[in-house]
Amino acid sequence: MTRLIRNAERHELSTIMDWAAAEGWNPGLDDAPAFWAADAEGYHVIEEDGVLVAAISLVRYRRRYGFLGFYIVRPEWRRQGLGWALWQSVLDKASTPTIGLDGVVAQQENYRKSGFVYAHANYRYGGAPRSDLTAVSPDIIPIDAALIDRVAAYDIDFNPEPREKFIRAWVGHSNSREGLAFVQHGTVAGFGVIRACREGYKIGPLFAETDVIADQLFEALAVRAGDRPVFLDIPGPNKAAQALCERHGMAPVFETARMYRGPAPALPLDRIYGITTFELG
User: Fold this and answer.
1) Is the pTM of this model over 0.85?
2) What number of other Cβ atoms are within 10 A of residue 129's Cβ?
């Protein structure tokens, strides 16, 4: 049997996302192009006799920070050490001083053995949001080509390293994704993105300077889902984000652990009302 650990090709990222859907991770319908734009060399697979059997991503934003995700072994290939082999291969070659991940709670101890340290919990809230929205604030506008530079600049505060390529692709044109920004006197004070997923919609990121702005952005985005469920992934320390979810009739459905190997970044969790994605941070 011939085993090959290699970088994934672009079309294989779509296959990996189908695996993620089968695991219940509910990826977006059009995530792959933006994920690939973040780091085309960040996706890795194991191939056994020409068959893809396992995957992992380590997306690097610049030189000092990367994020792990898509750690999946196909069910029929599990318990053979393939996932561990791929994990070791990718981490051994990692050159970024800090690596983050959002891991399922049951795997926290395994991640600790590889040097990852718990930072905080994240919670996925879901449901059909309650809203009495009758009119969207005139300060909330679609993110278009004229606004995207300011949105990308605003995003810098919310990730350990700038991620312009990803953000430009994430808020760029897509039939299944839409971005809105809160802009006053020409200054961006928050933005969010809603995207169609295998089940319902996800909002992420949702960044804002105040609770009021976050709530207004959330309502303006959530109304686009109609009566379908909406999911929002919040950092546990942000109690205002939890209150936002509960105020709109959403309940926790899933939990992950944010962990870091290397120096943990000081992120403004009080202004992060929705994590961008559990796959890319």
Assistant:
1) yes
2) 25
